[in-house]
Amino acid sequence: MDLLQHLALGFSVAFSPENLAYALLGCILGTLVGVLPGLGPVPTIAMLLPITYVLPPVAGLIMLAGIYYGTQYGGSTTAILVNLPGETSAVVTTLDGHQMAKNGRAGAALALAAIGSFFAGTVATTILAAFAPPLAEVAFLFGPAEYFSLMTLGLVGAVVLASGSLVKAIAMIILGLLLGMVGTDVNSGVARYDFGIPELQDGIDFAIVAMGVFGFAEILSNLELKENRVEIAGKVGSLYPSRSEFREAAPAILRGTVLGSCLGILPGGGATLSAFASYTLEKKVSREPERFGKGHPAGLAGPESANNAGAQTSFIPLLTLGIPGNAVMALMVGAMTIHNIQPGPQVMSSHPDLFWGLIVSMWLGNMMLVVLNLPLIGIWVKLLKVPYRILYPAILIFCSIGVYSLNYNVFDIYVTAAFGAVGYLWAKLKCEGAPLLLGLVLGPMMEENFRRALLLSRGDFATFIERPISAALLAAAVLLVVIVALPSIRRGREQAFAEEG
Questions:
Q1: Residue 429, Cβ neighbours under 10 Å: how many?
Q2: Is pLDDT larger for residue 389 or for residue 226?
Q3: Chain CA centroid to CA 330, Å
Q4: Which of 131, 132, 143 is nearest to 473 (CA)?
Q5: Cα 332 vs. chain centroid, distance in angstroms?
Q6: Per DSSP, what are the bridge partners of residue 5?
């Protein structure tokens, strides 16, 4: 009964004209971002983060959430039609989706992607509504020691589940933790690691790092690529899948939804890992694995369902425990802290309108995205004709204005440009920026909880293993490290992400 009352509150919040408008704006921007190659949810949300200063908290978060799951829809359109993945999780969609388009089944491929995305998004949002309240109740049992151990597990999970080199992921996490220590020490009030620069005494703004590493660096990386103007593979044609296509896709949609919903909850999981894992699973269970990569409906529908389910269930650890599981959720933490909202279990009790309004807006957003994506395919594809030499400088100017509006300080633009240059270098070295962002967000929180735990235990480090929940979380972190160190697991991990490169 409580759930129904909470959902009624959520519907009353989400159906207000203002919040409906921002949900629609987020979905349109997300689809646009997904369609345009070279962009993605992280740089876009990073660029739009300053806008949330002037928006009400609920409207701002609804818009940012719409951008996130909207990119999962938009990325499939160009992946299918022109073999250009708009963002990382759409890389898998190109493998069978574009082959279906070349075989004259572009419309059916787009329809299957939309159906799978809508179904998975709806189921994942239902899971979020059903399981978030009991998880939030459990979170109230957490003290400083438990939160420190949980964040340790989160960072270890992010390293293990990140694609690419483990050593590089660990290095980026540590660098993020160190950057989080810049500024004034909360306990002593002494400035540290500021190098005598007054602007650094308040620390390095999270949005500045995000915009530099993801916004500026992405633009620099894409400017050196040749403009890829691929012709659309045949006409879009009928949007109705055949019976055989739907029969092959339906089980994959169900499996992708379940897999994505589970992986989305894990730290470092989210949409990208879900899509790759789903494609691997579909090839394993298929009786005709040789058809994959040649236009198999299951190879398209499974990953598309998984990436949408993963995108939406990744909100569970953020809203219930206050722990961001991936880079986008780290940006959502930044948006919440802008409005002095502490992410975690208290959000449900102190800001129920925000919590339930955001959840209900996801249902509405999924419906909006189906309407936006299928009838407006022609418009989205025409956007690909905008020359990159016009598009990217415009984005760069928009980024700079957003950075300046944070503190009205030119120094912030210099810092963002510096992180952009370093981020470009990291991209060349194949170092992911997401672990750095997680380290930057979780670092100050980890330090605060670590100190509080030691203060309460009078300096006894044993408190972290004497408290059952804390000990279990630390044991899980150690187990993850041991498992990923095993040669067979390490090879399997590298193989799972092999197609990303």
A1: 9
A2: 389
A3: 8
A4: 143
A5: 9
A6: none
Q: Tokens at residue 162, please?
A: 């990140």
Q: How many residues in the chain?
A: 501
Rounded Cα distance, 368 and 375, in Å: 11
- 485: buried, middle or exposed (CB in 10 Å: 19+, 13-18, 0-12)? exposed
Helix (H, G, I), strand (E, B) or coil at 315: helix
Q: What angle do CA 395, 401, 402 make, to 5 degrees?
A: 85
| pLDDT at position 161 | 62
Phi, psi of 192 (to 5 degrees): -135, 145
Alpha helices, H only, 162-242:
166-180, 206-210, 217-223
User: What CA–CA distance (Å, rounded) separates 331 from 328?
Assistant: 5
Q: pLDDT per residue over 191-220, tens digit each?
A: 888 888 888 888 887 778 877 887 788 778
Residue carrying the six token digits 């989400």: 14
Q: For 183, left (φ over 0), alpha (ψ -120 to 50), or beta? A: left
C-alpha 374/C-alpha 71 separation (Å) is: 15
Identify residue 69 by its one-letter amino acid code.
Y
Q: How far is CA 424 from the centre of its chain?
A: 20
Check pLDDT > 70 for residue 271. no
Question: 184 has which bridge partners?
Answer: 191
Distance, C-alpha 19 to centroid of its chain: 22
* Residues paired with residue 191 on neighbouring β-strands, in sequence order: 184
* List of residues 6+ apart from 44 with CB closer than 8 A: 29, 30, 33, 67, 71
Residue-wise pLDDT tens digits, 26-78: 888 888 877 776 566 777 777 777 777 788 888 888 988 888 878 777 777 77
Q: Token digits for 169?
A: 């992921």
Q: Which helix (H) or strand (E) holds 363?
A: helix 352-373
Contact by Cβ (8 Å): 166, 484: yes
Q: Which residues contact 393 (CB under 8 A, 6 or more apart)?
A: none
The strand ranges marked E within 208-276 are none
- The sign one gets for the Cα dihedral 192, 196, 201, 207 is negative
Amino acid identity for residue 104 in this structure: G
